[in-house]
Amino acid sequence: MSDDPPVSILLPTTKWTTACTELATQLGDDDELVIIHDNEDDPVTEREDSPEGVRLIAAGEPDGCSGKANAIAAGMEAARHDRLVWTDDDFHHPSDWLGEMKSDYAEYGPVSEVPYFVGRDPLSVLLEPLYASAGSLGLYLGNQIWGGAVMFERDDIDEAAFLDELRQTVSDDGLLMEYLVVTTVGRTRIVPIGGTIREAIERPVRWTKILRWHFPGTVAGTCLVSLLVLAMAILVPLYMVILLTAAHLAVNEILGVRRWTAILAYPALFVFVPLVFYALVRRTFVWGGRRYRWCGKFDVRVVE
């Protein structure tokens, strides 16, 4: 029998997904899966035979924060245990997922995994290599947090201050990065994204604004480097086609993912850079069916 303390898995979702079933089957005797939805009208509440150890919590409508931040805050307050796992419902959790997270925490303390975003629409597919290099690789090399797979304990952070700020902002993991130091273990999870061109445009807007409000120096550096690389791509195209393709093949190897989309790195650059600057001037964005106006780190308005 394992000596690991019990965990509370926090899973924001409004419907019962494959991830819910996967996680429910991995619970230990005292573990719990806390499914956080918005209200009693959500489809997940219609399920009559929730497995043992699964609880449903209604977070209510967000006020002054994102729906995800509101859900995580409600889940942390409702969770019964001190060891917490945050995860998402949009990727596959293999049968040993929770066990590996527990083992990693025992060895390293707070831990996180790395996402690799795979597109489901033409624009998201095109942007895959730059999401890998500008996003996933940075998380992996910088030991940064991905809210889709992170384990920590309440005592690892100033929980009261964190929850207070969480209910005033958009990004759950962006804020957690300011409170928690993690070790990023060498496991990459494939996360399907997009589906429509509109979704593909909204996502980089949200991600860019996370950098703007939580890590302004990073977004400034990203803009500068992007412009320099784009200029070189225009001046010496053949050289840059070879260099960018090789670099992104190497990124995929580091992340342990084999994707043909690395060959799109050069044309993706001509879309990615304008999108970054568009994101900086865009006033609102849509996430999870709600439109937000994020005017400051702790100034969030739900406008739809």
UniProtKB/TrEMBL annotation:
Its main location: membrane. The keyword Glycosyltransferase applies. GO terms for cellular component: membrane. Keywords: Glycosyltransferase, Membrane, Transferase, Transmembrane, Transmembrane helix. The chain crosses the membrane at residues 213-240, 260-281. Pfam families: Glyco_transf_21. It is a multi-pass membrane protein. InterPro entries: Ceramide_glucosylTrfase (IPR025993), Nucleotide-diphossugar_trans (IPR029044). It is an enzyme of class 2 (transferase). GO terms for molecular function: ceramide glucosyltransferase activity. Pathway: Lipid metabolism; sphingolipid metabolism; Sphingolipid metabolism. Its EC number is 2.4.-.-. It is found in: Membrane. This is Glycosyltransferase. It comes from Saliphagus infecundisoli.
